[in-house]
């Protein structure tokens, strides 16, 4: 499939999605959100794809935010719809995808860009990356899940400060607070993410999908994460991956998982 604003490559069961609007610092306009939605849907259904890496094109930005030019004139209703649609189509969709998604944060990740990185299952940043939620400087608040996911990742007090000051943090600050898991030199970012993805794809895709679901359950209002974990745990026992994983261990060989 061809996308107006994305480049997608696939190698050894790992797909890399590159958001490709470098002249606009990869800002998320409606067309890009729609492309991303289609790409994640398509890749998520493909059993051959065991991990997805999301990054931005150019040397400057992962994503510099939602495209301000598209919403500057919006009414209350349009603003509400923008957030609701975006959250459902893209941000929640990525968070709940059973295929692991790693954000390779290669520069500015601001506003909707940081929210996009936070919707991924975890983040790796290059040394030059800068992250922030500058929305209040525009007279609005984060609308793609930022007020929820940032406190989950770095704690309420730190999130309050970042949101209220609208300031940016460096990659090292983000690492210190748990916003990103690793910081690596710019030139090594994608290879590093691929090496982490290679560790992931050795494991049972079925079990990984269920683990994502169980971890996420704790962060959804009205859901009991422990109960969700019990259900997901039990389901694993009916799978070929579980039989293969335990048999391989007992036979002292490497497991070959199919995701079934
Ligand atoms: N929406 C729309 N366009 C954006 C954008 C966004 N969020 N972020 C950057 N751009 C565009 C700029 O308008 C500019 O386009 P132009 O060349 O047609 O004028 C181009 O991307 C390059 O950005 P520029 O501001 O010239 O680069 P810079 O290096 O001087 O500054 C930033 C980089 C990231 C500090 C600055 O672009 C910025 O503050 N962006 C907005 C960040 C933001 O508030 N995001 C949250 C939105 S809710």
Automatic annotation (TrEMBL):
<dbReference type="InterPro" id="IPR018376">
    <property type="entry name" value="Enoyl-CoA_hyd/isom_CS"/>
</dbReference>
<dbReference type="InterPro" id="IPR001753">
    <property type="entry name" value="Enoyl-CoA_hydra/iso"/>
</dbReference>
<dbReference type="GO" id="GO:0006635">
    <property type="term" value="P:fatty acid beta-oxidation"/>
</dbReference>
<dbReference type="InterPro" id="IPR029045">
    <property type="entry name" value="ClpP/crotonase-like_dom_sf"/>
</dbReference>
<dbReference type="GO" id="GO:0016829">
    <property type="term" value="F:lyase activity"/>
</dbReference>
<keyword id="KW-0456">Lyase</keyword>
<dbReference type="Pfam" id="PF00378">
    <property type="entry name" value="ECH_1"/>
</dbReference>
<protein>
    <submittedName>
        <fullName>Enoyl-CoA hydratase</fullName>
    </submittedName>
</protein>
<comment type="similarity">
    <text>Belongs to the enoyl-CoA hydratase/isomerase family.</text>
</comment>
């Amino acid at each position: 499939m061809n996308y107006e604003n994305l480049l997608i490559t696939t190698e050894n069961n790992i797909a890399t999605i590159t958001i490709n609007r470098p002249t606009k610092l990869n800002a998320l306009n409606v067309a890009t959100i729609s492309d991303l939605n289609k790409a994640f849907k398509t890749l998520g259904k493909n059993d051959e794809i065991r991990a997805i890496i999301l990054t931005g094109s150019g040397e400057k930005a992962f994503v510099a935010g939602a495209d301000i030019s598209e919403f500057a004139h919006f009414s209350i209703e349009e603003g509400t719809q923008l957030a609701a649609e975006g959250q459902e189509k893209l941000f929640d969709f990525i968070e709940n995808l059973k295929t692991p998604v790693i954000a390779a944060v290669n520069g500015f990740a601001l506003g909707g860009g940081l929210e996009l990185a936070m919707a991924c299952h975890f983040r790796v940043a290059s040394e030059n990356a800068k992250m922030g939620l500058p929305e209040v400087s525009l007279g609005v608040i984060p609308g793609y899940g930022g007020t929820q996911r940032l406190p989950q990742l770095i704690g309420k007090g730190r999130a309050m400060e970042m949101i209220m000051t609208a300031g940016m943090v460096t990659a090292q600050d983000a690492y210190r607070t748990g916003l990103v898991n690793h910081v690596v030199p710019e030139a090594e970012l994608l290879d590093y993410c691929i090496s982490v993805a290679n560790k992931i794809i050795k494991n049972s895709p079925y079990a990984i999908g269920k683990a994502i679901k169980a971890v996420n359950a704790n962060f959804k209002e009205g859901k009991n994460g422990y109960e969700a974990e019990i259900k997901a745990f039990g389901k694993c026992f009916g799978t070929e991956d579980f039989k293969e994983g335990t048999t391989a261990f007992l036979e002292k060989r490497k497991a070959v998982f199919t995701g079934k």
